[in-house]
Protein 1
Amino acid sequence: MQPVVLITGASSGIGSALCKRLLREDAGVRLCLACRSMQKAAATKAVLLAAHPAAQVTLVRLDVSSLESVLRAASEIQRRKAVHMLSTAEGLLTQEDCITADGLQAVFETNLFGHFILIRQLEPLLCCLEKPSLLIWTSSSNARKSAFSLTDYQHSKGKESYSSSKYATDLASVALNKYFNKQGLYSSVVCPGLVMTNLTYGILPSFFWKLIMPIMWLIRFFTETYTLTPYNGAEAQVWLFKQKPASLDALMKYHSCTSPMGKNYVGSRKMDVEEETAEIFYQKLLELEKHVLARLNAPLSPK
């Protein structure tokens, strides 16, 4: 069976670049693009098919900041026989926050919890001992332990929502490995580096980024994490696609890196996480899952 890869946020930025790069690695890979905007998703699909006419590309509407959307998308995706890789490229790059229609902090729900619910709903497709599956969480070098609190894991009282959500992502990945490795599901965390995408351009005016871009290229001589382009930023995801899931270290974060001469490679660094904290946080996620799904009259994981 050809690998089936589900990518959230696949219509732009790193998600779109990942789709293109995976098809170059394996023209037989079957892609499922999970996006909020079906118009943008269709445009991305057209670009992919123009370069790879025989590619198998399907679309599903998914807004990870809406649990109703997540559940609808999961129901549609469950019609497939398997999902071999799920990559989370959808997210919010902001320290500012608000409340969603689900009554949750927007950054927490978009960057972590919406994806967590999707994974839980897709457990029957993801868990397979004969052909292990891989979750790839998009984290950040800005995932800071100091920004996260178990007593306020949605970060409703703080000013570093993004940093907190990314550290929470690291914790969730560690905990998922503890519970699902024996069922053939593995979880890894990547950092794409500093990438210029629509999310980045939303922080400051576009003309500002154009002015400082030459400086950013020069900084690459001193730091490996200035990947700058979505193509480069997807390096770690592409590398993971080619690895055996069981061979990966659950406590490592895999970084997309670019040398001063433009050569892409993958670096790894141990995450600053404690497995005991990861376990406590995972139980809190399960409690929150039970609460919100009961409110929506939706079932827990169908497995």
Note: Strands lie at 4-8, 30-35, 56-61, 85-88, 133-138, 185-191, 252-258, 264-270.
Protein 2
Amino acid sequence: SFPRQGLDVILSPAEEGAEIVSMADSTTTIDDIEGELFRIERIREILVRRESELRYMMDDIQLCKEISRLKTELQKLLVLPENQKSNEEKQREEELVQQIHKLVETRDFLVDDVEFERLREREEDKEMAEFLQSKLSKSYLQRASGSPVREKKMTSRGQQTSAPYMSKTGLTLLKECCGFTCSIM
């Protein structure tokens, strides 16, 4: 039958003698499981945030490339003397200026979105910190009153690295990639 090292065996009368082995280690407490679930949820949140940042960065890079391409084309038209330009070239010049303007506006909206996301994430982090603080305070009060509560400080890998990780996200990455110091802007 099944190995019984550290596993809870539950016999179900409905199974007529068949053994059902619990996946839970008998030394694992509900607090341990909740802590692990919390760590997994936190890692998932960090990955979702990172995916969002990468999508913003990708959009920004593509916008910058397109702006650069259009500016190059516009510069070729601008070097021609005005009296030597055909009507098509003058019209193309106007179209290019309008396209560049539209792309710059789109990029501005993108930067605004990144800033909004950064502020929303900061608020979520603040709420989570307050929740954890209240949870830790409750467990401290329970321990002080003599109630047997086994709590341990849980720090996920994402939480351990969140300070340096968060310092270079969103708007900062856009600025470095193709932002305010970008040569094409």
Note: The CA atoms of residues 30 and 48 lie 27 Å apart.
Protein 3
Amino acid sequence: MEVKAKIAPSMLSSDFANLASETQRMLNSGADWLHMDIMVSLFFLCCYLCPEPMNPEVVATLAYAELTTGHWGFFLNSFYFCAFQIPPRGGQVSLHLWKIRRHFVPNLTIGAPVIESLRKHTTAYLDCHLMVTNPIDYVEPLGKAGASGFTFHVEASKDNWQELIQRIKSLGMRPGVALKPGTPIGDVYPLVEAEAPVEMVLVMTVEPGFGGQKFMPEMMDKVRILRKKYPSLDIEVDGGLGPSTIEMAASAGANCIVAGSSVFGAPEPAEVISLLRNSVQKAQQKC
């Protein structure tokens, strides 16, 4: 069974103020899917307000102020966010302390409400890529919002991927699994070979979290291994894809191509989308 070429412009590179019109522009340019990056950044667990002012020397031992604005200082590390007021000379410092938990990536993008709003304007396949710590929490909201595909990260679902896949399918979405550059390809085999398997594997060709990064050609070994092992599997690549890198991805066996800045930044997006599709189809003909 030959897999079809699917070109999915990444809406992360679109004009968010005109998302509906950007969607239509991509579809008019020949896009097969629309790739929706869903990321969550920092989550505040609890907040403490010190009952009494703290001596400046004490504050100095707790954290070094990386940023100061006026009479306020801020410090951020993996565990705490501090905001402390710096009074006139000789005074004491009032310290506000929030304990935080970092999520899967250091960025924040769209969520289910935006998917729901966008669905009112298009019937297109919305290829949702979840870069979150607890993907199972997002299945129902995205299913109700109208997501078409739900791709979660294997790194964030080692303990519950079977239940996760079942829930995704029960809400009419197509399950996929993604892996970061540092994750061994073998980690996704059980999910592809399961009784209720994922239907796509997304190989990240950049570190997830931001658009416009440089393509990592060494990730093509993973694509080649997957294509040889699973000839009929949809294999998606995401990160740094464009006219200068598509040949590497296509020849390795990728058939679903996510492209952001190379499409949205082009004078003629339709020409770039056509080039990407033709490269995949030509590579398939050589096999």
Note: Residues 152 and 177 are 5 Å apart (CA to CA).
Protein 4
Amino acid sequence: MAASASTPHTTDFPAEGRCSYYVEKKKRFCRMVVAAGKRFCGEHAGAAEEENARKRILCPLDPKHTVYEDQLAKHLKKCNSREKPKPDFFIQDINAGLKDETEIPEQLVPISSLSEEQLENLIKKLRRASEGLNSTLKDQIMSHPALHDALNDPKNGDSATKHLKQQVDGKHRKKNSVFERLQIDIQHLCLNKIPLLSKEKLPVVGIGKHLCGVATDLALRCLVETYAASCEERNEEPLAKRRKNDKTDKEINPLAKEGNEKNVPEKWTPVAGIVIALCCHHRCDWRHYVGKEYFRALGLGAVDFHYFQRMSSWATCGMRKTSLEASNVTSKRKDKHSDDSEEHDDGGCRITDDSTESLPGLLTVEEKKKIGHLCKLLIDQGRVEYLQQKGFSPALQYYTDPLVSLENVLLTALPNHSSSPETSA
């Protein structure tokens, strides 16, 4: 991707202290900070005449960025893509589920290549499997008081208000709260090996804001099978409850202080609750899916799941604006907010082979939308059944208006104290 001084720019000059390289694809200047006396950032230094003598090459650890050839050895020692020591709570594929290679053919044709008869059979299967499911979910649209002032600020336009509604992290942190970020794929996360949880035996509440597709299944298995099951196998109690029962223990601990003991429930469960905003069902994967038993009970298998998760994108892609004016407005807004825009504004849809024009029988947008919602509902019902089998009381509900996010379904679950969950799946 080259840049030249004669290229017509939408902005005459780059921002002060920023790179002078014009990114043709994004129709704007690079926003990276430059060193004192330089015109270009390290990534685009090759475009500067004074830097032409030094050669930049692709980083062997991550070809998405470049490095000076004469500084490669130094760069490899500090590159963010270098191999890092694995923490104790990393256990390879602990939440991945069982791998069943015999169920999924190596190559499946795209939906656009299915015959009209094959597509009709798939849709019939979907409708039969969805019979009896409640497609009308309850509205549970709430707002935290911490956001009220910002949401009611008259200076905010529609886009700013929408963005605020989507942002909830860090808005109501308590002064004495402890926050710790773990940089790890959920697929390999073993919660009971995290030092704080292992030491204090704390109950966990799982909260996920738009856990894309397969990440929802990995998170559920991480909570319900990895953490909850392991705690119950060891018959562990929270530290505060043990100290409440042991009158001879006088150690000072925030959890054991008088006044906090009454907050420890008599019926303790390792996972106190689950709240997950669902999205991107087309990113689901049969191997990791927690609802396999539910699908099999309906006479469905891996191939059916594959096509249903692909068709689920129709629920959001079918609602895209088609007018030229709307397209231009959206394009300008994306250019302006490309670095911090919400990644799910378009429903996470990136599928190009399933357009209405390429489908057998030319399904209408409304028909595709209804089928897409049925696919999402069926996949989510498998998760609901899974949680019920594990001793939870789950529910699906709408947590926001579709004008704020097309992915507006929330999965919640509370432990069912009247029954004990299974220990494995």
Note: The first helix runs from residue 72 to 78.
